[in-house]
């Protein structure tokens, strides 16, 4: 692909003191994680395997969207069903942690974004320009994050307003009628951004050799926009939206049957209001996405309209008693889906309190223990259930550069509505399906020096 990029940006700091402070900030982003404890903690002091990917590293991959960048980071498995990571019907691009399909929980600034129908999250709709960093925590995290964090957590941290005012724009062109254009504005109180992508029609994006057919894809147009605002001290508003349109054609070899053509549109919205201090965090969040699909070669077939929507509240409080550190909190998430032509409208409520206790012995050994009581409350006529989810971790600081860590935790995953109710030629749902659960055991080494950085774990 041949690419031409043009950018315009506001003034950058030039004196050495500001440059030094900026370098320190970048270093801090690479060593401080929020995901490991739901409050900021030095990554090396945590008993969890956490990878922090900065905005600069994401851009350095050369990817055109977030899911494409993550597949190039390493240590993750990636699957896509269409170019640019676009969903093909209900089949979405996905990132898998440690080989467990749908075991990952995906967050934006700590808020869950996955649809309850099929666990989809569509990271292809998020522009890299909107991201400050990604925190990837591997291993069971159900004690901190509940029902879907079976194999790990991907926490997307968006950019916040910065001290200087700046403007940035980029223009890219490539073969296959590829376009990728973006514009952003940054100020002390508000960030806004817009991104547009286009890809020309593609032939044979997938093929079934046994059933003798292929899929072609129409032109694709994607639009994404974002807003991040500091409303008051410690109070932030995040909004991300996206829309794309494309289509698919199913062609049978030798024209054995007439081709089948489908137009597809998809709109997603995410909003998050959060209040954050060093000892207290609270947020209210919501997501809404809808996909429309119309088979234009069969006018009598009704249009599909599939909706996923979540909203909820979350609170965390950190305090100390003597030399013990306590984190207490609670979550409530309402999860709903309405698949008009499939199984209709369903919903559930996830509610949980949790507690984490941490203590350091003799300045070297740090022990962390946590527990969550997870309640899943179904709609009328369905089963309710609860699970106790404990975890335990140890970190041994051998030297300033070398730490050893180990952790154990109970993993838990609730069935999706597709698992429960969806029916097709290759899948039949089971309304009596129970949650999956298991244990994760992990140990490893963290080593840092001026010239070398190592993170090694066995699980």
In a nutshell, what does this entry contain?
The protein has 459 residues and is mainly beta. The chain contains five helices and 26 strands.
Structure notes:
The structure is a single chain. By secondary structure, this protein is mainly beta. The strands form four sheets. It has a 17-stranded antiparallel beta sheet that branches. It has one domain: Maltoporin, Chain A, CATH 2.40.170.20. It has five helices and 26 strands. 8% of the residues lie in helices and 55% in strands.
Strand-helix topology:
Layout: H1 16-31, E1 32-33, E2 41-42, E3 49-54, H2 55-60, H3 66-73, E4 77-79, E5 94-96, E6 104-108, E7 111-112, E8 131-138, H4 142-145, E9 152-158, E10 166-174, E11 178-186, E12 190-199, E13 202-208, E14 213-217, E15 220-232, E16 235-252, E17 260-276, E18 280-295, E19 304-321, E20 324-339, E21 344-361, E22 365-378, E23 385-397, E24 402-413, H5 417-421, E25 436-448, E26 453-458
Q: How many H/I helical runs?
A: 5
Q: What ranges have pLDDT less than 50 throughout 5 or more consecutive residues?
A: 1-30
Overall spatial form: globular
The top level CATH class name: Mainly Beta
Mean pLDDT: 87
Largest sheet: 17 strands, antiparallel
Supply the key terms.
Maltoporin, Chain A, 17-stranded antiparallel sheet, 5 helices, about 450 residues, disordered N terminus, 26 strands, mainly beta
């Amino acid at each position: 692909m041949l690419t031409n990029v043009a950018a315009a940006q506001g003034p950058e700091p030039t004196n050495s003191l500001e440059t030094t402070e900026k370098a320190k900030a970048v270093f801090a982003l690479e060593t401080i994680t929020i995901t490991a404890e739901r409050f900021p903690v030095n990554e090396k002091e945590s008993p969890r395997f956490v990878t922090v990917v900065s905005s600069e590293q994401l851009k350095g991959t050369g990817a055109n969207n977030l899911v494409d960048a993550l597949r190039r980071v390493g240590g993750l498995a990636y699957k896509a069903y269409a170019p640019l990571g676009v969903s093909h019907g209900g089949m979405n691009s996905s990132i898998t942690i440690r080989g467990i399909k749908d075991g990952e929980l995906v967050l934006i600034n700590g808020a869950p974004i996955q649809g309850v129908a099929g666990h989809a999250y569509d990271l292809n709709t998020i522009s890299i320009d909107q991201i400050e960093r990604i925190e990837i925590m591997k291993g069971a995290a159900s004690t901190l994050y509940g029902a879907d964090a079976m194999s790990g957590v991907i926490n997307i941290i968006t950019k916040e307003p910065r001290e200087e005012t700046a403007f940035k724009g980029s223009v890219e062109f490539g073969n296959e009628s590829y376009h990728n254009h973006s514009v952003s504005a940054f100020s002390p109180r508000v960030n806004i951004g817009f991104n547009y992508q286009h890809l020309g029609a593609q032939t044979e994006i997938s093929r079934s050799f046994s059933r003798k057919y292929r899929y072609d894809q129409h032109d694709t147009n994607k639009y994404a926009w974002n807003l991040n605002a500091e409303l008051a001290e410690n109070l932030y508003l995040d909004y991300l939206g996206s829309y794309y349109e494309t289509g698919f054609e199913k062609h049978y070899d030798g024209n054995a049957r007439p081709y089948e053509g489908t137009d597809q549109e998809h709109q997603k919205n995410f909003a998050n209001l959060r209040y954050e201090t060093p000892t207290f965090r609270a947020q209210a969040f919501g997501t809404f996405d809808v996909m429309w699909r119309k088979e234009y070669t069969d006018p009598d077939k009704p249009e599909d309209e599939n909706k996923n929507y979540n909203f909820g509240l979350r609170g965390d409080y950190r305090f100390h008693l003597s030399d013990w550190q306590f984190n207490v909190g609670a979550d409530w998430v309402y999860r709903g889906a309405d698949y008009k032509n499939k199984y209709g409208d369903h919903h559930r409520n996830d509610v949980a309190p949790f507690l984490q206790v941490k203590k350091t012995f003799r300045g070297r050994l740090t022990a962390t223990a946590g527990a969550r009581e997870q309640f899943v409350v179904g709609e009328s006529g369905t089963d309710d259930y609860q699970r106790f989810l404990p975890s335990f971790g140890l970190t041994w600081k051998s030297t300033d550069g070398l730490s050893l860590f180990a952790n154990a935790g109970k993993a838990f995953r609730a069935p999706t509505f597709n698992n429960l109710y969806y029916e097709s030629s290759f899948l039949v749902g089971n309304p009596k399906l129970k949650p999956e659960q298991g244990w994760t055991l992990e140990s490893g080494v963290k080593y840092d020096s001026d010239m070398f950085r190592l993170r090694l774990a066995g699980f």
